[in-house]
Amino acid sequence: MATFNRILIALFSIACFTLSTNVADATYTGITRHYKFDIKLQNVTRLCHTKSIVTVNGEFPGPRIVAREGDRLIIKVVNHVQNNITIHWHGIRQLRSGWADGPAYIAQCPIQTGQTYTYNFTIVGQRGTLWWHAHISWLRSTLYGPIIILPKSGVPYPFPHPYKEVPLIFGEWWNADPEAVIAQALQTGGGPNVSDAYTINGLPGLLYNCSAKDTFKLSVKPGKTYLLRIINAALNDELFFSIANHTLITVDVDAVYVKPFETDTIIITPGQTTNVLLKTKPYHPNATFLMMARPYVTGNGTFDNSTVAGILEYHHPKPSTSIKKLPLFKPTLPALRDTSFVTNFTNKLRSLANAQYPANVPKNVDKHFFFTVGLGTNPCPKNHTCQGPTNTTMFAASINNVSFVMPTKALLQAHFLRQSNGVYTTNLPSSPLIPFNYTGTPPNNTNVIDGTKVVMLPFNTSVELVMQDTSIIGLESHPLHLHGFNFFVVGQGFGNFDPKKDPVKYNLADPVERNTVGVPAGGWVVIRFFADNPGVWFMHCHLEVHTSWGLKMAWVIEDGKLPNQKLPAPPSDYPKC
To answer: Locate the Plastocyanin-like domain: which residues (predicted)?
Structure first.
């Protein structure tokens, strides 16, 4: 396993070379790339604990997908394990290819044991870092990997070309089976047990017991620029990340270029990606440097209060000093609850908004929505004692007080066949039915309404959505991910959203464009997007525990009038429930 990380970097260099020699010029129209994902069990040891985990091709983390903007990807997934499986290609726009989006019982029925499904989609107008992961239960704890989207051949990055590119994927490691962890939590109504470690590229690092040999090491040369493609694949934790004595330049988030800015530390929520430039020192510093990540905490629940560390080491052509003898520097990370740092960082994120990379923000809004997002309760079943906020309640989560109930058929198929009866209803409230002081003293009744409720929109509707955190069961940050679209983050703030005063402060010139945004703890965020992608698109909190509790919904986008505005028929191997 110690050589795993060097192999990763070497493979990426080979992949870049192969791509650059296989394509011609800026008129590049894309090629088709084939991948095969065999879902199988693999014994893996971390923290002196060996267990059998679900993997792709026996790899942990899973294999990287490398492509160029404009390429078509055909990925054959074969399920050799007992679990039902789906794979989501997180952040891919999936224009008119919703059948390939992946969330279980939303876009598709799962791939059952012994079955195969081929995901077929084209990367349109995107370049940067995205990622893929399982999208059923908590299986994404081990089923995840990077998607590297290079620009079209002949099109440069809008920043200095890096000497090397390195993916850094943050994850979580459980000694227990995460499927058993969430099953127990849903049964008792309480919070789930937390992970035993965070990981960088699958490795917990030297700060954990029995883990020194499982430390990610990045060997760099002096005077070079490295592009770090950072992904937060953790299940339930937003993370701070920093490298001791080095400055990072943020250049891209969620596969969209941003105006570059320097920072010592980044904040990244589950589901998000951030590309940063790392400029190494012009000389060998005769030291090594820790790169560390630990959680940003906003809620009242338990959390994994530990730190993952990797090592940045400078390469000596003729090493005369043992790495072990060099001084080791640690970065200073923000405090666990440093919300002011998070606010300042997110306020710096701005789109390039230039002729080549415009920010096509909807200026006029057809439909306004106001969603409260947060926790709540369900009553404990009769003759049971529960472990929720009280012993008579179970934790739940909701949007406008509706806790989403997963259907047993795929919503997309029901929509396409016009067979929604008994599967879903289109009456999710567009604003709270009973307004209250969202961030103040919570109401006495914290019970949610359970239902499979969606919002239906005509094709190309321009949407403004306010997402408001609530104090019910405690204020907490919620990273909301929208499938099938990018959106523009035009405003955010703390307290209750004021529809009269706050819109005048919107940034409609160069707002950041992304697919996952953190709703601030005790605050609100406003996004805008065009509903220009026909199909059914999941939107959910990317804290997996909140998704399990029901903080999710779906947008049903109707066909447009033109042939290229309609959802095609499903593929012949589309899984059956």
So the answer is: 40-152, 165-316, 434-559
